[in-house]
Design a protein that fits this description.
five-stranded antiparallel beta sheet; globular; alpha+beta; 76 residues
Length: 76
């Protein structure tokens, strides 16, 4: 498992990377603390750029390594 920092509007959330999926977690708990607007902005970017899909409230899946790399380049 690898972890990355994801930054949106000056808010930092940790990303847990497993295979071709990203799970957003907070520094305090992996269940609470991520504002909806944060998730919505990342999801909208994924839809707009056809780069992964939202697969749960705080998770995103990618078709291939290239999509995952583009996502990481944008959000880390």
């Amino acid at each position: 498992m690898r972890f990355y920092n994801l930054i949106v509007n000056k808010l930092t959330v940790y990303m847990q990377l497993q295979e071709n999926a990203i799970y957003l977690v907070t520094p305090f708990s992996d269940e609470v603390g991520i504002p909806d607007i944060f998730i919505d902005e990342v999801s909208a970017w994924c839809d707009e750029h056809d780069c992964g899909i939202r697969s749960g409230y705080r998770s995103f899946k990618f078709d291939n390594e290239e999509q995952l790399t583009v996502f990481l380049l944008r959000w880390t």
